[in-house]
Design goal:
The complex is a heterodimer of chains A (66) and B (201). Chain A is mostly helical and 66 residues long. Chain A has one domain. Chain A has helices spanning 3-8, 10-14, 20-32, 34-52. Chain B has 201 residues and is an all-alpha fold. Chain B is built from eight helices and no strands. Chain B has helices at 23-42, 45-61, 72-86, 118-130, 134-145, 150-157, 161-181, 184-190. Chain B is globular, with a radius of gyration of 19 Å. The chains are: A mainly alpha (66), B mainly alpha (201). The interface between A and B is medium-sized, with 31 and 36 residues. The complex binds zinc ion (ZN). Zinc ion is lined by residues 3, 6, 29, 33, 35-36 of chain A. Zinc ion binds at residues 3, 6, 29, 33, 35-36 of chain A.
Chain lengths: 66, 201
Amino acid sequence: MKCEQIQLLLSQYLDNELDELRRKKIDRHLQTCASCSQDLTSLAKTVRVLHAVSDLNPPGTTTKKE
Amino acid sequence: MEQPARTKTNLEISNSDQPPYSWEEIVRTHQRYIYNLAYRLCNDPHESDDITQETFLKAFENLAGFRQEASLRTWLSRITVNTYLAKKQKRLKHRSIALEILPVPDWSGNPERIVIRRELRWCIHHILQHHLPRNYRVILVLRDLNRLSYEEIATVLGISVSAVKSRLHRARLAYRDHLLKSGCAGLVRDYSCYCEGVQEL
Ligand SMILES: [Zn+2]
């Protein structure tokens, strides 16, 4: 696979949404391609940042609580 | 906050018009989840109230149309997102909050050990709220904040799973670019943004 194809799949790769075959192809590619690896790292970091605020909830919940 | 277990939200709707649970029970079970979803989308407690009320009103009116293909919570989420999207986006001017100088977090270290502090949260939400098209914001909230599966997102948004995949990826790239471009550290330092004064469209 070419770099462009790989890069389009990186979100799915991170989310574990790829089939075994594709995942292995990407694994192999990443071992030798610094640019795609870097892309993956920065994307992973972005997702981690979003996950880190996923516990955000409204400061004062005004809806009735029962 | 603890989120209700996803597997427990399937309502067993029988063939009769009578749902096995009362409307009050439905509201009680899902109200907080829906309110939080609305809040994550609009970041405004009053608007979240409105969206929540509208969601349950529409749900009540259309309950007969609810079928089991989706869980009740997914169905309610879909109404919530549509209600949010139907609202005219307020043209809010950024607030520039002058605060004491805060230390810049160290982004160079092991990412696992990054402590997301209050200021950083502000920055992260600022980008979500002010620098992304709404359809990107929605998909990031659904996937990366609410942790819905691709299939659930497809149902909530009424699009195909492959459309979810490509939109999610583009949204994450856009988010990453803003994170890099804005130099998140700058945001954290003085709560100002490079876009300050730009009105949200
Ligand atoms: Zn490559």
